[in-house]
Amino acid sequence: MDTPSGVLLVDKDPGFTSHNAVALCRRILGTKKVGHCGTLDPMATGMLIVVIGKATKMQDMLMCEDKVYTATMKLGIETNSQDADGEVVAEKSTAGITQADIEAAFAHYHGEFDQVPPMYSAIKINGVPCYKLARKGQEVERKARHVKVLEYSITRMDLETAEVDFTVHCSKGFYVRTYAHDIGQYLGCGAHLTALRRVRSGTFDISQAVDVPTLKASSREELLARLLPVEEVLSTRGH
Predict the structure, then answer these.
(1) CA spacing 20 to 30 A to 78: which of 19, 25, 94, 239?
(2) Which residues contact 52 (CB under 8 A, 6 or more apart)?
(3) Which residues of the chain are in CATH 3.30.2350.10 domains?
(4) What pTM value is reported for the model?
């Protein structure tokens, strides 16, 4: 039996992890040579890139590509994880904040700037993931990363519920949770992310992805038919 190779695009469900996707593909395809191109937060949904066989050599290349997310933030409430999965650590009034204020905050974080990764992240400090230290109540210094917002749009602003829906096209290593947190700091009221969906990664669009129920029900042959060939993926990236 030949070792399968290719790229599988998965539309992740909330709570379904990158590890779950890799383990499932290994079992269905009967191969250990399976990896993924960047995790998504537990509550997040959308594009998860799984690489199989020879495609594992493309991991770094695919992880370096720009991403597009749709998301919702809640103003006035901060959490320790910067998203809805965390514990509330601060609450402030959003009274007096206008649409113009929100637009100005987004405009401030457009283009290139430095972003400090959250404590609840997989970034390692002396070999230990930050989230493990955070769970012990430890706060350690993280190096700021140079990131870029190439494009953004505010798709809904509700001043009564203090919710903002937005789309952001960003560079690799970008934390949308931290983006929401920083916008909240700029506005002076705090904020956290309540929904996150990755809709594009590089040239891959979420419309190409297989949903989790279909993936779980797939046979080996059905899954093989869904793999994007290595040559095809490379050809779309100028190689």
Answers:
(1) 19
(2) 4, 5, 6, 7, 8, 25, 29, 31, 33, 34, 227
(3) 6-64+204-235, 67-200
(4) 0.92
pLDDT tens-digit readout, 185-200? 999 999 999 999 999 9
Q: Please tell me which residue in 2, 11, 41, 60 is annotated as part of the active site.
A: 41
Residue type, 19: H
Measured between alpha carbons, how far apart are the two ends of the chain, in Å? 29
| CA-closest candidate to residue 68, choices 150, 12, 157 | 150
165: annotated active-site residue: no
| Cα torsion 202, 205, 211, 216: sign | negative
CATH number among 3.40.50.200, 3.30.70.100, 3.30.2350.10, 3.30.70.20, domain 6-64+204-235: 3.30.2350.10
Q: What is the pLDDT of residues 15-30, one digit of tens each?
A: 899 999 999 999 999 9
